[in-house]
Request: fold
Amino acid sequence: TSQVVFVLTLLLGGLPRVGHGTTFVPMDELTLLRSSEVVLVGTVTAIESALSGPEGGIRTYIHVQPERVIKGAIGRQPIVLREPGGTVGDRTEWVFGAPEFWVGERSLLFLSRNDDATLQTNSLSMGKFTLGVDSTGQTTAVRDYGYGSSILVPSTGEMTEAQPETQEFEPLLDWSWCNDTKNG
Reply:
C-alpha cells in the first residue's frame, strides 16, 4: 500500500540518492491484483480538490464511471477515488508519486481503501494504468510513476529515475489462471 512506499522511502534515506521524492519497489501485476480490494477499467468523469479540514491537507476526488469490474463488489455505479494533494484556490500540495488523472481518461485501476473506507489507487501511481491505442490499433496500458519518482531494484540495489512503462492491455488482464481475481 501507499504506507509501504512511504516507509521504504524513509528507510532508504541513507542510501545514495538520485534526488527523487518517492521511491517505488516494483511489484508484478499479480501481486498488485492480490493486494487490491477493487480492480476495474473505467473513465474519469470529473475531478475536484478540497481541503480535508480547517487545518488539513488537500485531497483530490476523482469521479470514475466503471466500465468493467475485474475484482471487488462495487457494481457499475460511479465511484469516487480520494488521492493526496491537489489545488484549492492559490494553495497547491504536490505528492511525488501520486497518480495524475484527467477528465475523459480511460484507466485500469488497482484500488485499496483509505482508513475512512474511501477508495484510492493501490501504492500511489503504481496502481494506475492509462489506456490508449498504439499505431497498430492495439490497446496499450501505460503506468507513469510521475515526476520526482524513482525505482529501487531489490536484486541489485540500484535506484533509477522512474520512466513510464507501456505494455499491451489484454495480456495484462490475463489472470485466468489466478483463482482470486473476483473475490480477493
Notes: The longest strand covers residues 38-51.
